[in-house]
Amino acid sequence: MAALPVRMAVFVLAVLSFVFFLAPAASSPAVSSAINSNKDVVQLFHKRHIRSSHHFHSLPRIPSRALLLSQIRGGGGGNSKATATIGAPPGTSTLMASIVNLAKNIIGGGMLALPAGLAAGAGTGYIPAFLLLAFSAVSSAYTFILVGRSVEATKSHSFKEAWSRTVGPSHAWIVDYAITALAFGVCIVYACFVGDTFTSLLKGAGLPEWLSSREASILGVTLTVLFPLTLLRDLSALQYSSYVGIGAVLYTVVFIALRWYDGSYAKGGRFFAAIPSYLRPRPAEFGQWKMSAGTSILFSMFSTSYMAHTNAVKYYNELEGRSVGRFTQVVGVAMGAATVIYLSAMVLGFETFGLASQGLVLNNYHVSKDMLATLGRVATAVSIIGAHPLLFSGLRDSFLNVLPPAMSTKKEAWFLSTVGLLAGATGLSLLCKDVGMIVSLVGSSLGALIVYVFPPLMFLHLLRKNKGEIKTSGAEILLLHATIVFGIVSGCYGTWVTLSGVGGK
Fold it and tell me: Cα(481)–Cα(486) distance, rounded to whole angstroms?
């Protein structure tokens, strides 16, 4: 199965790299003209609704601590107060800066689980995998843009505010709980990364089993490093951790490509005999069109990979000279770049280890003899330590937001929620040793809601409240309904497959 997928990966890499570097140089008039039809109705929307703005419950804008923090918070906090519908101040983020920031927001360590996604169940052939990846990228980009179109019409400052001004404030609690659950799921994934990454590093350093086991790694790093960091009130020193994270991702992809190219882990390679037998490459014997129950697990991973929709409002409002057309360009290029990274990691990792690919593919590489793999683990570990407190801060804020005010305003609530949430995420990461399964579960449940259900539902309600004012088509309305149905069905099925173990190896 080697020649076809690698050629396809190189071809897509070349095409999307061309788009990535050249697209920001100029806007697309055709796309901007077609999509910017929403701009014509913004004034009509406000003329119609500004007098009744007391029906809208908006939230104070949450200060941005860092990109990773805002990703999971999604602006879903604060007290509801009546306010006028006032748009955000002019954006200051350039087109290229917005593209890079969104790409950093999307691309993460979850890509290291994609080779295991291909191997899940009875396996998935490259052709359905490529088609599902393309579908995930395009559909995620479309629903991401839908949020921007809703913001353009409602002048919202947060995802929850956009929901309140479209679906209605009485159901805004759904957004609060979804964002809290998403943040908790991401923290569990990070705890699993801590266990897998530090276990390999400590074993490579020659530490005894009782100090280098997965359980010892998770508990040790959590108690000595992560817990003190989560107690910090000022996280400004960690705001550049996302740059370290994207550097770690890019290095890891290059390293995976190099090890596939030099054949170090192939039979007869210098590391083949040095790794345990269960980690050695097991070539796939199924065809290019193979599909199985594990295919739904792979698709759930794809859903997680593009999930940044709760932060779409922030990106739209901060875009310099914001318009739906420019926002479309940002989303298209950023998600195209992410697709290149995902495709490369998935194909090259699977080509190297096949059906033996682990939930975190770094676990397949030798723990001490492969220095490039060790550097990749170190980079990933530093990235996790820097990003986890930011992610956890968003979880804690969201959790306090869903509590009754009488509880959340107590002096000890902040500390107790820190201890309880960190202990819960750590405990679940100790119980679940397959990070790929957690990534799939988060994607199949929360990913389906946030990517495929919430944005089209918001836009449909916007269309109903402003009949004839926002240009659309019967085909798009049908597409919106179909997207919601697809999100519900695929989410339920993917969650069942993940939890039941039908798609397991």
Answer: 9
